[in-house]
């Protein structure tokens, strides 16, 4: 398989963790999201993904898949072990809720394109943009801290889709210096996951395009 990725992309980080957990080897095709205004905006990448975002997974059959949650679901359906979702329907809904809280409610507000729009189109100062970033991560984490049930992973004793989404979001928060001392459960889950080789190998600093 081939993964279009950028070392700092948290959506690509989710897919890297998922691939590692499933034991699937893949090649990385790096797409620099910052250089020259973003190599994701080049026509050759637009031809791969009309949304011009990473991650994109090209399967061994040549299918081109976009959107991290859809890709992770595809991997879980085609490689069932270890499962990313619990068997019980209520537990599954809880895991998905946490994943969506992060991937649909926190992450889009702090993504490269909206932040760039705040700066360039709306003329906002960097300090206001940083406040915006911190505000939405902190609000999301306040809810997340109450919703997770570490044991030691976000939803108990098994790694799940919730952890796959949580760890990259915590990495982003640390990079942007969001204070995390109010979120001991989130920090504990992050720490428990990162000792696992699948999570460790997926870290931004362990990628071939890391800077
Ligand atoms: N909902 C998408 C988000 C993908 C996404 O926004 N990726 C970011 C990097 S984390 C990106 O490519 N940004 C480029 C841009 O916004 O121009 C997913 O989960 O895959």
**Low-pLDDT segments:** none
* Overall 3D shape: globular
Q: Figure out the total of helices.
A: 9
Structure classification: alpha+beta
Strand content: 5-15%
Name the strands of the widest sheet in spatial order.
Answer: 2-1-3-4
Helix content: 40-55%
Compounds present? Answer: glutathione
What is the chain-wise order of helices and strands?
EHEHEEHHHHHHH
Strands, count: 4
The oligomerization state is single chain
* Arithmetic mean pLDDT: 97
What does the largest sheet look like? Answer: 4 strands, mixed
Taking all Cα atoms into account, the compactness measure Rg is: 17 Å
What does this structure look like?
The chain is α+β, with helices and mostly antiparallel strands. Helices cover 52% and strands 7% of the residues. It is built from nine helices and four strands, in the order βαβαββααααααα. A four-stranded mixed beta sheet has the order 2-1-3-4, with helices on one face. A hairpin with a 5-residue loop joins strand 3 and strand 4. Helix 4 runs parallel beside helix 7. It is globular. The two termini are 24 Å apart. The mean pLDDT is 97. It binds glutathione. Glutathione (GSH) binds next to helix 1, helix 3 and helix 5.
Write the layout of secondary structure elements.
Layout: E1 2-5, H1 10-22, E2 27-30, H2 43-46, E3 56-58, E4 64-66, H3 68-78, H4 89-106, H5 112-120, H6 126-147, H7 161-175, H8 184-194, H9 197-202
Parallel strand pairs: 1-2
Antiparallel strand pairs: 1-3, 3-4
Helix pairs in contact: 1-3, 1-7, 4-6, 4-7, 7-8
């Amino acid at each position: 398989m081939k993964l279009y990725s950028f070392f700092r992309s948290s959506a690509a980080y989710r897919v890297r963790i998922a691939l590692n957990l499933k034991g699937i080897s893949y090649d990385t095709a790096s797409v620099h999201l910052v250089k020259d205004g973003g190599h994701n905006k080049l026509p050759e990448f637009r031809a791969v993904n009309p949304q011009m975002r990473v991650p994109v997974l090209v399967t061994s059959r040549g299918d081109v898949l976009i959107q991290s949650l859809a890709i992770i679901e595809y991997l879980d359906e085609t490689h069932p072990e270890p499962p990313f979702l619990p068997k019980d329907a209520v537990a599954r809904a809880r895991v998905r809720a946490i994943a969506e809280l992060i991937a649909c409610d926190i992450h889009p507000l702090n993504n490269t394109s909206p932040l760039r729009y705040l700066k360039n189109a709306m003329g906002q100062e960097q300090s206001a943009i940083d406040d915006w970033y911190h505000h939405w991560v902190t609000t999301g984490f306040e809810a997340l801290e109450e919703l997770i049930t570490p044991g030691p992973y976000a939803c108990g004793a098994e790694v799940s889709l919730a952890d796959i989404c949580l760890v990259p979001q915590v990495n982003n928060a640390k990079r942007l210096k969001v204070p995390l001392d109010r979120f001991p459960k989130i920090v504990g889950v992050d720490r428990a996951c990162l000792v696992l080789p699948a999570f460790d190998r997926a870290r931004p600093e362990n990628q071939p395009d890391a800077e």
